[in-house]
Amino acid sequence: MEDRMRTNAQERAHVRLMIELDRQERDIADARLRRALIPPEWGGLESAAPTRPRRRKVTLALDEEVARWFKGLGDGWHGRINAVLRTYMLALISKEVLAEGDRDRHGNEIWGKAPPKRKEA
């Protein structure tokens, strides 16, 4: 049977598929590495991490695998999620981690620069 040429739409879908598969392979490798790096103290994080006295109850939709992983860590999984989110928030605020808006269209870091002036109509 002859191989037939893909249409443009099929070729674009194939490229997106290959990119997605590559991303997933890297994610799996990263997850394995992260699991190997989790310190034994992680289990006591909710009791050791400082908590704020004032909390707000919210509904949060998590990916199923993320929720399952945190729940699998046992009691205090809500506190662990809060600690991870707080760490990420502080990393963004301190610019240890760059957010999507911290790069220009060429991928160059722009944080620390004054925002462009808006033209008012």
The chain-level structural class is mainly alpha
Principal-axes geometry comes out as: extended
> Could you tell me the strand content as a percent range?
under 5%
What is the H-and-E element order?
A: HHHH
Give the integer mean of the pLDDT values: 78
Put simply, the count of helices is 4
Question: What is the number of E strands?
Answer: 0
Measured on Cα atoms, how large is the radius of gyration?
A: 21 Å
Tell me the helix content.
40-55%
Summarize the structure in words.
This protein has helices spanning 8-37, 45-48, 64-72, 77-93. Helices cover 50% and strands 0% of the residues. By secondary structure, the protein is an all-alpha fold. It is built from four helices and no strands. Among the domains are: 10-42; 56-100. The radius of gyration is 21 Å and the shape is extended.
Structure summarized in a few sentences:
The protein is mostly helical and 121 residues long. Helix content is 50%, strand content 0%.
Based on the model shown, name its key terms.
extended, 121 residues, mainly alpha, single chain, 4 helices
Q: How are the elements arranged and paired?
A:
Layout lengths: L7 H30 L7 H4 L15 H9 L4 H17 L28
